[in-house]
From TrEMBL:
SUPFAM superfamilies xrefs: Probable bacterial effector-binding domain (SSF55136)
The name this protein goes by in its record: HEBP2 protein
GO MF term set: heme binding
Recorded family membership: Belongs to the HEBP family.
């Protein structure tokens, strides 16, 4: 057998040391991200389990603005007043979404827990075994009473499947996640920043209802909160969507 030269031995040993160092850094990054999400979760009274470490890391690494696919829509109208955008009227096409119904005591708990389940589905826990890619916004369907004075506890958190997966979406391994096809819809959208809770959502619903010329054209008890930043972010970018009646 040919003897291994000292030079090649050094290189093979050196590369294994480099791999070990990279793995150690990988583990440290995973721990740091997990502990960050766990501290955010505690603020929302949500427990972030250890098995979320890998999906969190995967999503964080792939969360460049260039990597995110925006949900396609056609802009119908922009309503402005003194240079400020009041709302946009948009047309969204028929599409498939991965949806999970949640009913926690607080809205923030529902979206955090629902988002974590969807993250697992996006990050390889699906029939393809592949990372599916992030799309924005992640949306939450909420319901209110007719008077717009209170929200019901039951919400649906939903992830728009990327264009390449629309025809044949991978099946979720989690039986709580259901693939639904939503019909084409006209939406009235207004953006707002900050946390989303029962109070801020009701405030935004009433604000948009007051601005719209014909709010009666929209569903009275069903609204969508569109989130463009993950629930761990402090200054989130959100939109409230009113849905035009079919």
């Amino acid at each position: 057998l040919a003897e291994e030269s000292p030079d090649s031995a050094y290189h093979s040993h050196g590369s294994s040391l480099e791999e070990e160092a990279a793995e150690r850094m990988d583990d440290e990054e995973q721990e740091r991200l997990l502990s960050y999400w766990q501290s955010v979760g505690r603020g929302h009274q949500v427990d972030v389990p250890r098995d979320m470490a890998e999906p969190i890391q995967q999503l964080t690494r792939n969360n460049n603005p260039q990597e995110r696919q925006s949900i396609p829509f056609t802009l119908i109208q922009r309503k402005e007043k003194l240079g400020d955008l009041l709302y946009e009227k948009r047309q969204y096409g028929k599409a498939k979404w991965a949806c999970i119904k949640m009913k926690e005591k607080q809205y923030e708990q529902s979206i955090c827990l629902g988002f974590m389940k969807l993250m697992r589905y996006i990050c390889e826990q699906n029939s393809s075994g592949l990372y599916l890619g992030i799309t924005v916004p992640i949306v939450t369907v909420v319901h209110t009473n007719e008077a717009h004075s209170a929200m019901t506890q039951a919400v649906t958190v939903a992830y728009y499947l990327p264009e390449v997966l629309q025809d044949e979406p991978p099946h979720p391994l989690d039986s709580d996640i259901v693939i639904e096809e939503w019909p084409a819809t006209i939406v009235y959208s207004r953006s707002f920043r900050g946390i989303t809770n029962e109070d801020s959502i009701m405030r935004e619903i009433n604000l948009l209802a007051a601005i719209l010329e014909s709010p009666e054209l929209c569903l009275r008890d069903t609204f969508i909160i569109a989130g463009y930043t993950n629930p761990a972010a402090a200054n989130r970018l959100n939109e409230i969507w009113f849905l035009q009646r079919p």
